[in-house]
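Project outcomes to date are best conveyed with an example. Our students and postdoctoral researchers have been running inverse folding experiments weekly, and each run begins with a structure described purely in tokens. The record below, which covers 512 residues, was selected by the lab manager from last quarter's runs and is presented without edits.
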């Protein structure tokens, strides 16, 4: 009898390990592909513009639309997984991602690319949110932390390799090649998911899903981005611009009213009373957003014939030191925080970013690629220093039962930051360039001034970020294990949920 129990227990253990391995493979591979796809698209914009005849200003929506939809969906997709099954929702995220890749690759006009990217934003957010939940459910203890670390590493590698791979494909097979390959890799994850990953859900979760809240987030962000993108052309006091801002305000008010009344709100408004969480979330928004914004401009400037005149592959290769800096620094964040403290680390990150943007503000049309490397590496390094600790603070500043909600707020902030900051910098870049050309400047000088003012606009936000440190790292309860889990994935990952056993522990410490 005892032998029967042992055999059954051994078989169950083996099955659990196989399911955990399948979850690790499916989620890490898909996270790598999603993050690579996200970071590669900016490099492809000039090639897509030339092929479809769509202006780059319009194709900016291929970047901001992705982030906008992702911001609206990231929390909802996680909730759908908790209620209806994480494997099921993860599977449909893969299907949607494949469909969006095919739509983009087959598009002959910019509108198809933009529509596909918006769909891809929903798919990517779903894959990342449910993927992390599947990892947490399939592993326990140290294995859970190891899985989170590997998932974060896969995300970082994907984000680092995306521009290089995208540029290489654009220069050889054409820009469509990236999406065909991404679709094939995502398709390979489907049988692994269906045959190997164990289904999981959270029976304690309310069955209601706040879909109205998701719609209102999109309704808040979309007109805001329209206004920021077109305000220069329309006029900042035009009825179009004011109308967009009015819709944004009305939708934001509607969102607050809805969240107060629904059974399972997308955002628990009580969390906004937590100044540490609010400060950390805003810091994440600013840090992630400004990096996304400046890299969008870099991709355009490096490939412009009147600037550095790189092809897509050269531009992707040129961004490699930037991504490498964030990847290399990521595992060093925890010991750095242990030595100098959370506050100092966050401040140092924003100071480095501000200084780097200040250097980029002096760009002239005589600058070669070598002049850009150090300040751009500084921007990436500073973002890593402030983003990891802020991700930890956002979850360690709340009760264990609120960790998931706090993590959702941070996840949303990354998408919102990318969408809003890219819209701001695109408006500045195109507006300054147009004014300089009107005033008689050469095309190369106009582009350099546009890049300069784009850097200044991003630097201002980073300077403001320094002030947010006074809102974070006060009266924070920090668990070292939780911090390590978050920091491992923080630099490039879009969604971070600390391992459940670690997050449930409550310890206190002085974050200095």
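After processing, the design step wrote out the following sequence:
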């Amino acid at each position: 009898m005892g032998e029967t129990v042992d055999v059954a227990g051994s078989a169950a253990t083996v099955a659990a390990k196989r399911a955990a391995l399948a979850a690790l493979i499916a989620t890490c591979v898909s996270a790598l592909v999603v993050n690579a796809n996200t970071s590669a698209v900016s490099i492809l914009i000039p090639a897509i513009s030339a092929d479809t005849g769509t202006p780059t200003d319009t194709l900016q929506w291929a970047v901001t639309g992705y982030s906008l939809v992702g911001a609206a969906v990231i929390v909802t997709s996680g909730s759908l997984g908790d209620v209806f099954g994480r494997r099921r929702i993860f599977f449909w995220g893969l299907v949607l991602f494949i469909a969006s890749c095919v739509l983009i690759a087959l598009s002959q006009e910019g509108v198809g690319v933009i529509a596909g990217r918006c769909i891809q934003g929903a798919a990517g957010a779903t894959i990342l949110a449910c993927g992390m939940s599947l990892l947490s459910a399939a592993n326990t203890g140290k294995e859970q932390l190891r899985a989170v670390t590997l998932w974060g590493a896969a995300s970082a590698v994907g984000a680092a390799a995306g521009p290089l791979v995208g540029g290489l494909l654009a220069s050889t097979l054409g820009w469509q090649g990236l999406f065909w390959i991404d679709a094939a890799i995502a398709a390979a994850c489907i049988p692994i998911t269906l045959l190997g990953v164990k289904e999981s859900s959270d029976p304690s979760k309310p069955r209601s899903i706040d879909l109205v809240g998701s719609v209102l987030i999109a309704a808040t962000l979309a007109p805001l981005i329209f206004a920021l993108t077109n305000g220069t052309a329309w006029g900042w006091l035009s009825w179009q611009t004011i109308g967009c801002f009015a819709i944004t305000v009305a939708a934001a008010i509607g969102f607050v009213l809805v969240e107060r009344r629904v059974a399972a709100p997308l955002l628990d408004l009580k969390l906004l009373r937590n100044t540490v969480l609010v400060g950390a979330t805003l810091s994440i928004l600013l840090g992630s957003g400004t990096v996304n914004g400046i890299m969008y401009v870099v991709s355009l400037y490096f490939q412009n014939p009147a600037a550095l005149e790189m092809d897509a592959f050269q531009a992707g290769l040129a961004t490699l030191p930037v991504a490498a800096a964030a990847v290399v620094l990521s595992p060093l964040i925890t010991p750095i925080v242990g030595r100098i403290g959370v506050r100092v680390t966050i401040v140092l990150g924003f100071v480095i970013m501000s200084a780097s943007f200040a250097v980029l503000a002096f760009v002239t049309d005589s600058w070669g690629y070598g002049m850009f490397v150090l300040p751009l590496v500084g921007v990436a390094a500073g973002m890593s220093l402030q983003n990891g600790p802020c991700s930890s603070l956002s979850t360690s500043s709340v009760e264990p039962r609120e960790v998931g909600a706090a993590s959702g707020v941070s996840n949303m902030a990354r998408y919102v930051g990318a969408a809003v900051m890219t819209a701001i910098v695109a408006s500045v870049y195109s507006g300054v360039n147009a004014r300089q050309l009107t005033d008689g400047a050469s095309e190369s000088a106009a582009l350099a001034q546009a890049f300069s003012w784009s850097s200044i606009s991003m630097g201002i936000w980073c300077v403001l970020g320094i002030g947010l440190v006074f809102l974070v790292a006060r009266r924070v309860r920090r668990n070292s294990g939780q911090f390590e889990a978050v920091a491992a994935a923080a630099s490039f990952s879009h969604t971070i949920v600390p391992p459940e056993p670690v997050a449930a522990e409550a310890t206190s410490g002085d974050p200095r």
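Residues 66 and 118 are 5 Å apart (CA to CA). The domain at 270-512 is CATH 1.20.1250.20 (Growth Hormone; Chain: A;). The training component of this project remains on track.
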